Amino acid sequence: MSTAATLRARSEALAAQLPPLLAEAEHLAMTILMGEHGRRRSGQGEEFWQYRHAQPGDPAHRIDWRRSARSDQHFVREKEWQAAQSVTLWVDDAQSMQFEGDGSHGSKAERAQVLALALAVLLVRGGERVGLSGFSLPPRRGALQLLRLAEAFSNADHSADFGSPEARGMLPHSRTAFISDFMGDLAPVEAAMAKAADRGVKGVLLQVLDPSEEAFPFDGRTIFESMGGSLRHETLKAGDLRDRYLQRLADRKSRLAELAQISGWHFQCHHTGESAQAALLWMYGALERGR
């Protein structure tokens, strides 16, 4: 089997985990005005966009004298803004993302990967360039790039207990999406967002959690162990930990929301038991608002 065919087969296998989500992405790609035509505005470019009335302060060389000769007013010839938009994705591949609670909704990693891939489909079909943060897969356009993304997700490392965002490779004034459970140390998240802000990068934080991580349905003797096995805690009264756990989780969400607000980003928490379509629509809309 050729490399392209292998990539396509792996991509289809990944996509098949959530057909309704990808069907919705197809529908959105056909009905939402996206890409270059949806982003038309004045700026540096090569193609003519429109004429506008000259205003005080416009230099004489910008006036289109041929168009102005047909009127009693002066007109400026504007060109279309054509700077290609780039979006980088960081999808947490750490061990913690393999958690899937009672198994009825799939793992957090599966949901995060499918959401990221569906978002990439929407963006690529809208003329955007999409890639992974870092230098392994720079932003590009086209169907082949979607296959590369699917291949990268299927070969995720899963070595660390908790993930740390990769801030390298972000182009100035581009956009990015961080998708993670954000259950580890938040210091790397803060550092990555600070680097992004220095480059004028705007983005979204999507926190993906399993419903049991929100409800904490544990009582009596319970052994809590990280997915990688590096952390372990045994208690005879798990119910006594519920209030403290929920408060710490609420504090973590509040901190993520605060970081997003300070940086001009958007934050949302998504549960694997909820509609994947809703999370996809939110991410796409938030990235559009962040331009």
Q: Care to count the β-strands? A: 9
Q: Please compute the radius of gyration using only Cα atoms.
A: 23 Å
Q: CATH topology of the largest domain, anyone?
A: Rossmann fold
Shape: elongated
CATH top level label of the largest domain: Alpha Beta
Unreliable segments of 5+ consecutive residues? 18-22, 31-48, 80-84
Helix/strand-derived class? alpha/beta
Distance between the termini: 41 Å
Largest sheet entry: 5 strands, parallel
Topology pattern, helix = H, strand = E: HHHEHEEHEHEHEHEEHEH
Strand composition percent: 15-25%
Mean of pLDDT? 77
Helix content bin? 40-55%
Total number of helices: 10
CATH architecture of the largest domain: 3-Layer(aba) Sandwich
Largest sheet strand order = 4-3-5-6-9
- Domain tally: 2
What is the CATH homologous superfamily assignment of the largest domain?
A: von Willebrand factor, type A domain
InterPro entries: DUF58
Protein name: DUF58 domain-containing protein
Domain DUF58: 50-251
Pfam families: DUF58
Topology readout:
Blueprint: H1 3-15, H2 19-31, H3 35-38, E1 48-53, H4 65-68, E2 75-79, E3 86-91, H5 108-125, E4 129-132, H6 143-154, E5 175-180, H7 187-198, E6 202-209, H8 211-215, E7 222-225, E8 232-235, H9 242-263, E9 266-271, H10 276-289
Parallel strand pairs: 3-4, 3-5, 5-6, 6-9
Antiparallel strand pairs: 1-2, 7-8
InterPro entries: DUF58
Organism: Actibacterium atlanticum
Pfam family, one: DUF58
Task: Write up what this structure looks like.
The chain is α/β, with parallel strands linked by helices and 291 residues long. It is built from ten helices and nine strands. The strands form three sheets. The protein has a five-stranded parallel beta sheet. A two-stranded antiparallel sheet has the order 1-2. Helix 7 (187-198) links the parallel strand 5 and strand 6 (202-209). Helix 1 (3-15) packs across helix 6.
